[in-house]
Amino acid sequence: MRALFGARARHRWVHLVIGGALLMPYFLVGTVVVSPVAGGVSPFTSFPLALVSFAVALPFAAVSGLVPIARPLLVFGVRALGGVDPAALADGPARSWEARLRVSAWYTTHVAVGGILSGMSLALPPFTVFLIVLPFFPGLRHTAYSSGGPLSTGWGIALAPMAGIAMLFGLAACSAAAGALLARLAPLLLGPAPADRLAAAERQAAELAVRNRLARELHDSVGHALSAVTLQASAARRVLDSDRAFVREALAAIEETARRTVDELDSVLGLLRQDDGDPATPDLAALQGLVSRTGLKVAYSLEGDPSSVPELVSREAYRIVQEGLSNALRHGGSSPVALQVAVGDGELVLVMENPLPSRAPVVRPGGGRGLRGIAERAALLGGHASAGTEDGRWRLRACLPLGGAR
Q1: Which of 11, 201, 325, 364 is deepest in the core (most CB within 10 A)?
Q2: DSSP secondary structure letters along 174-209
Q3: pTM (2 decimals)?
Q4: Could you tell me which residues come within 8 angstroms of residue 299 by beta carbon, excluding any fewer than 6 positions away?
Q5: Sequence ranges of the domains in the chain
Q6: 373 closest CA partner among 300, 320, 313
Q7: Of 295, 313, 312, nearest to 228 (Cα)?
Q8: 139-177 pLDDT, tens digit each
Q9: Residue 213 vs residues 177, 277, 316: alpha-carbon distances, Å
Q10: Cα–Cα distance for residue pair 204/227, rounded to 1 Å
Q11: Helical H runs in 46-96?
């Protein structure tokens, strides 16, 4: 009973009736085509001509299903009434011809099956009511006796209510079977085509790239700021009673670093709030300010014209230097750092050096992601980066092609 009259069966019946309603305009066009050929006989008074008009209407429905916007409209109806897994259906208009043909096949099947079931739903219920009440009304029995058919006998009239109830169950069974058929066909014909799967994979890859970029931006900006603040606070604590001037400078540097980090954090989070374009991010022109706030003695030299560096390369170079200074703060203590930035023909070269600490640095459990992030940034631009010990010093070197911005 639930399979025939339950909520899902009723929803699918409504979906089929909607298909029958959608068939009517095409059926009327079919009657216009068939009537002149039939010699003036109306398809509305001739069942064979109605079937011919029905067959003529289906190609017009198939052509309508080729419109790209048809798929999201049909998918919405299936999701609302068909009881089909929403994840198995495609989103967005059908772009490829393969997808359009599949949508056209679904739409034609929907209106054809819906048209047949709608006709049954209009014709059978009144007749079943007539059969059920037939034994109880003498006037109806007289009509049945004079018809000369199966209902003209006493047994025919006695069994008429059972026949009517059987017809209702038969209609419900046909509706359930047709609904189940369409539910089975929906994922095949309205599901994602290979082109849709490729587009979805590209969108997923783009979203993953954005998340990775956000992770790098947050790691570089916040990690650098915390390292700088920790170093400045530690140095100020050691000389709190002996060098008040240095303490004031350290506190000012902490304040400036925190303020700058908040601005950068807002900039990074802006990537999540904005649909088009990126918010302004630091570049090579901001390196001098970054070096002055680090809390380290940094010998900074710049060769070439930084304004000739593309925006993307300039931004990534800033982040690489920021991460390199963070590593120097965490692992090198207060050792001086030498930073060289050279803008040459076709590439930007970053070299950062600092002496190795006298004792092994404290390493976080699982290791950090800074050097890996530097290598990823360089690789995405078509360049390369390396880091390691040379002659008792730690050296970080990155080469970024200026054409990598393309």
Answers
A1: 325
A2: HHHHHHHHHHHHHHHHHSPPHHHHHHHHHHHHHHHH
A3: 0.52
A4: 336, 337, 338, 339
A5: 2-192, 199-405
A6: 320
A7: 295
A8: 766 666 566 666 656 676 778 888 888 988 999 999 999
A9: 51, 14, 11
A10: 34
A11: 47-64, 70-81
Encoding tokens for residue 290? 């970054």
In one letter, which amino acid is 40? G
Range 300-316 average pLDDT = 88
Residue with tokens 């029995």: 141
Q: What is the pLDDT of residue 146?
A: 60
125-154 burial by CB neighbour count: b if 16+ within 10 A, else e? Answer: eeebebbbebbeeeebbeebeeeeeebeee
Instruction: Tell me if residue 365 falls in helix, strand or coil.
Output: coil
Residue 287 burial (C-beta neighbours within 10 Å; 0-12, 13-18, 19+): buried
**Taking the CB of residue 206, how many other CB atoms lie within 10 A of it?**
10
Sheet with 384-390, strands from edge to edge, namely: 298-303, 337-343, 347-355, 393-401, 384-390
DSSP 136: G
* Beta bridge partners of residue 394, listed in sequence order: 354, 389
CB contact at 8 A, 341 and 400: no
Kindly report the CATH number that applies to the domain delimited by 199-405.
3.30.565.10
| pLDDT tens readout for residues 84-111 | 888 888 888 888 888 899 999 999 999 9
81 alpha carbon, distance to own chain's centre: 23
Tokens of 129: 């009511």
Position of tokens 């409504």? Answer: 14
Report helix angle 97-133 to 7-37, nearest 10. 100
| Residue 337 near residue 361 (C-beta atoms within 8 A) | no
Residues in the chain: 406
Query: What's at 169, amino acid-wise?
Result: F
